[in-house]
Amino acid sequence: MKNILKQIIESNKQVETAEKAAAAAEIANPSTKDSRRNFLRKTAVGGMALGGFMSMSTEDTIAQATSKVSRASKPSELKITDLRYCIVQNVGRTPIIRIDTNQGIYGLGEVRDGADERYALFLKSHLLGQNPCNVEQLFKSIKQFGYHGRQAGGVCGVEMALWDLCGKAYGVPCWQLLGGRYRDKVRLYADTPESNDINEFKQKIKYRTQDQGYTWLKMDISIGMLRNSEGGVVNNKFWGGGFSQWAGDYHSYANTKHPFTAIQITPKGLDEMAKVVEEVRNVVGYEIPLSSDHYGHFDLNNGIRLGKALDKYRLAWLEDMVPWEYTDQWKTISDALETPTLTGEDIYLKEGFKALIEQRAVDIVHPDLASSGGLLETKRIGDYAEDHGIAMAMHFAGTPVSFMANVHCAAATQNFLALEHHSVDVTWWESLVKTTDGRKLIDKGYAPVPLEAPGLGIELNEEEVKKHLHPKDKSFFAPTPDWNEKRSHDRLWS
After folding, report:
1. Beta bridge partners of 435
2. What is the pLDDT of residues 5-26, one digit of tens each?
3. 3-state helix vs strand vs coil in the chain, percent to 5
């Protein structure tokens, strides 16, 4: 092969020499027109360039021909070298992680909002030296260290970062690695704005739907709105009357599951809660799906009573009426109501969803990708639900890093309905990242899917992120050598 190339090169040189001499003679001829003379000069330059190219060695010829090809990395030789983090003041605290490699490319992931970065740092010793493109293998090796709720945050954050790395290494978007996309934009749902003045509320709804372009909304319907209503709730004072769902000690209302509070909603309380929904529905109208959440901690009987009081308003769903693990209770509630039921934001892995899906205990599953297992596992959850005729919405309350992981997963999952955007009114939220293809992160209530951008399709806007670091930890992707060493034998079988 090389001898043939040498013969071709030598022959080309002889032809080029003769052509150059003929062209030079024609250029020097006074009768040659200027336009022809200029053409010959240009082709002479081109011939010189081509001649130089053809005189190279075979190896140099190949190198020159492929010099403009973008090589993000050599995927088969990628190795993980570090895992670092920073914590952003988003929904309290949200850790962003970065997985570095030996080839200079890195992947971004996110530990779920409100979770501890150490859930991810603990996994570092299991990742060092591994090829990040072996996503499923690595996921299987670390998934035992996740659990329901925020305890899954480390595993899910790592999985996000691995897909980001893999996409960058191969130069394709994450949705392509999941099997392709069903849609070019992802529908978002946003919270209804808060206001005690009905006229102000109407203006805010108009802004949310017409100016911001959201086509799906969600509102809170809580017994907390009855805290000052005499006779609205039974057993109110025992719990302090505040009904905070997140703050308190082990024996507080916040940490007492729904069947064990002995709280009941009176007919008066039901009427007042229904009136609030009616006012919102009248403002929003019936063209826009309106979901609901955060009712409070009361048993399934009161959940059914509330659901029946709200059925006529055609809500898109009733969310988390009882804890997700009470499959039989969910089945009872769903069978009693016309309004669709939904749960799942704290469930880890497809196995956690199977009973709800197989028994059709809910009408819609609602995984949070930062708890459910990451991109691929969440797609598997959606696919399994689809096989049973159940739709999937997606819960989300993190930074744009996890947001984009959700967008890729939603694009690749057929039975997807809508993705939550919890920080729609946080003015600096979108500025935490830059899209690598110049698209908008959010456009009129939808998230455009990155059609060409590799990986998640974003990079951090580092200066902006630094403005919003958590006050208790201002570190910014500092080395984490204390987590390099594996200290235990973690195999689950003998």
Report:
1. 458
2. 345 446 555 655 665 676 666 6
3. 45, 15, 40
**The domain 75-171: what is its CATH number?**
3.30.390.10
Instruction: Answer whether 75-171 and 177-462 agree in fold.
Output: no
Specify the residue for token string 């019936």: 286
CATH domain 177-462 topology = TIM Barrel (3.20.20)
At residue 467, φ and ψ (nearest 5 deg) are: -70, -20
- Number of CB atoms found within 10 A of residue 283's CB: 16
Domain ranges across the chain: 2-64, 75-171, 177-462
pTM: 0.85
The dihedral built from the CA positions of residue 162, 165, 171 and 174, taken in this order, carries a sign that is positive
Determine contact, residues 272/193, Cβ cutoff 8 Å. no
CB of 272 closer than 8 Å to CB of 297? no
| 210: DSSP letter | I
Q: Report how far residue 256's alpha carbon sits from residue 405's, in angstroms, rounded to the nearest whole number.
A: 33
- What confidence tens digit (pLDDT) does each residue in 323-370 have? 999 999 999 999 999 999 999 999 999 999 999 999 999 999 999 999
Alpha helix stretches (DSSP H) within 191-326: 198-206, 267-284, 300-310
Query: In angstroms, rounded to a whole number, what is the distance separating the alpha carbons of residues 455 and 172?
Result: 6
